[in-house]
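Z., the sequence and structure:
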Amino acid sequence: MDLVLDKVKEIKKRYGRKPQCYLVATILASNFGGVVWYNSNHCVTEIGEEFYDKRGIVPVEEFERDGYLPIHEFGIDIESALMGALIEKTVEYDNRTASRRLRKKTENIR
């Protein structure tokens, strides 16, 4: 369990404080052999007897109440979702980096 929570922290550090839920879910599933569940609004990952999302452990009651189904039942390909999320985050990071560089150049000119 601690390893999974450590991985969630690492994902947040690498991809921002609010990474997409499917990015977290697919990374956790690929690292720990979990199952990704989806409810048309949010993804969680089942690993062992626990459910995880970008906040950490999801209470079983919340999981049961919110009507999750295995993600493939929604016709979502996990690999495509993960690649899309990684590409989006990479572009976002590149844009932030370019903006910082431009600001620094502008400040140096003044």
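The chain has one domain: 2-109. Helices lie at 2-15, 21-32, 60-65, 78-109.

Let me know what you think.
H.
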